[in-house]
Amino acid sequence: MTTGDRQGQRYFLSSVTRIADLAEQPFAVSALERADWATGDYIVGRVTGRPSALYKIELRNGRMVDVLDGDLVVGALGDRAATLEGVGSWEAIGSDGAFHALTGAGLFGLATSTSLLLPTLMSLQYMGHVERDGRPVRMADFVPPVADQPLKAPVILLVGTSMSAGKTTAGRMIIHELKKHGLRIAGAKFTGAARYRDILTYQDAGADAIVDFVDAGLPSTVVPKKTFKQALRYLISRVAALEPDVLVVEAGASPLEPYNGEAAIDALHKQVRMVCLSASDPYSVVGVQTAFGLMPDLITGPATNTTAGVELVEKLTGIQAMNLMDPSALPELRQLLASTFPELLRP
Hints:
This protein is an alpha/beta fold. It has seven helices and 19 strands. It has two domains: 2-142, no CATH class; 155-340, 3-Layer(aba) Sandwich (Rossmann fold). Helix 1 packs parallel to helix 2 and helix 5 runs parallel beside helix 6.
């Protein structure tokens, strides 16, 4: 929690502001004509409504805090299209200025469809855009330039059959194992909806550097393909500049969802050495294989929670499956990594 402007008004700066200097430098807040709104604009919302379990904001450092009616939160305009939780867009915000926190990271828009199993989304009221010198402050203003360069490091690609399929858990376990060999590891999330927690998990597992699409100025990757490809080129160049031994990269949600996952996979395919597919159920694995012609090297996630699930996945696909939450699976994972990277993982 940090203060914003010099008038002493306190704001909760959500994690989509972590690339900006809003905690250090003053800013003003004023209403902007609707025709001038755009994806990635930083805006201020006043919390309204009766609090639910989702009345929490992820701060710039990744810590979650509770917010109450009347609190002011700084987030960014964007879209979300989550199959299991909710769909919303900043463009759906009406003249009354009411909107929702589509994620706790400060992805702001009006929810248009939500799961009945989900607690009530945080409601907010538009108070204005963050401004400096009479101009709106946008995420893109804080993206430092990086020289365009190709990625040379081998890639472990994490994909899923849906959101919450266990991709981040798989990435954490893989990074942890790779770090035991003293390798320089970059952890990344190239598609999805803003949430700092996921790549912080990679850092906690030992990743030497972490990046995601927020670093490229996007609150989510539900954007036009041209916009996403520009951001993706930036992220690839930024990772390449780090010169990692291995890049562990997550394509958030599923390649079939409107997060531009397919474009991310296409851009990385020449460097992909291993594909880990996290599946919500055994039959969804077949669906992803059919839709993308994607042949995973490993299947994990809820589909592998029991031995019956593992056996069914392997019967349906002929692909090795393991529950990475089970310590007894680690020898298999180590063997798979060793056979995938024999030049890096010497006994």
